[in-house]
Amino acid sequence: MSDREAQSLGRILALVLRHAPEKFGVDMDINGWVNTRELSDAISNQRRHYHWLRGWHFEAIANSDEKGRYQVEGEMIRATYGHSIELELDLPTDDIPEALYWPCDPDQVSTIMELGITAGDRQHVHLSKTINKAMEAGHVRIDRPAIIEVDTSRAIADGNTIFRAGKSVFLTTDMPSDYLYQVEKDDPVIVEIIANWEAEEEE
After folding, report:
1. Domain extents in the chain
2. Model confidence over 21-35: pLDDT tens digits?
3. Do domains 3-79 and 99-202 have the same CATH topology?
4. What is the pLDDT of residues 43-96, one digit of tens each?
5. 22: helix, coil or strand?
6. Is the distance from CB of 100 to CB of 129 less than 8 angstroms?
7. Would you tell me how many other CB atoms lie within 10 Å of the CB of residue 26?
8. Quick one: which of 1, 51, 159, 184 has the fewest CB in 10 Å?
């Protein structure tokens, strides 16, 4: 499997496992699991150039994914986060860091600090393990994201549930403002990341 084929297949996996399993006619259970043999057959039937595709190719993609976006158990695969379809993800809730981070538009900070974080058009709020990861996630759609720190220890103690999804991604349904703090713009990690972005932009 070439890098180009792997990238294309990754986009199909994201579509099927996060948003629209019906596009390829595969059955998904309430926890987001899909049979890999059924999935490989469905994709190769719709996309003839994937005639070589087998179930074990998905395991290879899942195991090589640095973000832990996919989970494979036996002949079943699912996305661990990023869903727009309603599921009951039975993800672990242990080993949650004492603080997690969430990127947002700087213009939204005051509103978020007052009203809290909500999932919007996704099923869950996606929190990152580090400021670096949150900046990276936010930079996809925001030029210079602001970063909100979540006091997860207090949030969990007060009854809020946080799930461990990917290797550095955590999920919750929403997060009240009581547990939120803005990471200052002059935080050394943020300053270094922005300096690196500016250097890359000048190249």
Report:
1. 3-79, 99-202
2. 888 888 888 888 889
3. no
4. 888 888 888 888 788 888 888 877 778 888 888 888 888 777 776 777 888 889
5. helix
6. yes
7. 18
8. 159
- Asked whether 39 and 24 are in contact (CB, 8 A), the reply is yes
Is the domain spanning 3-79 CATH 1.10.10.970? The answer is yes
Residue 5 is inside which H or E element, if any? Answer: helix 3-14
Total-model pTM: 0.68
DSSP conformation letters of 35-91: EHHHHHHHHHHHSGGGTT--HHHHHHHHHH-TT--EEEETTEEEESS---S------
The CATH fold of domain 99-202: ADP-ribosylation fold (3.20.170)
CA distance 14 to 20: 9
Q: Which residue has the tokens 């294309």?
A: 8
**Packed helices 188-202 and 131-139: angle between N→C axes, nearest 10 degrees:** 40
CB-CB contact of 181 with 149 (8 Å): yes
Give Cα separations from 147 to 23, 115, 122, 162 (angstroms): 36, 16, 19, 18
Contact 153, 98 (CB under 8 A): yes
Contacts of 195 (CB under 8 A, 6+ apart): none
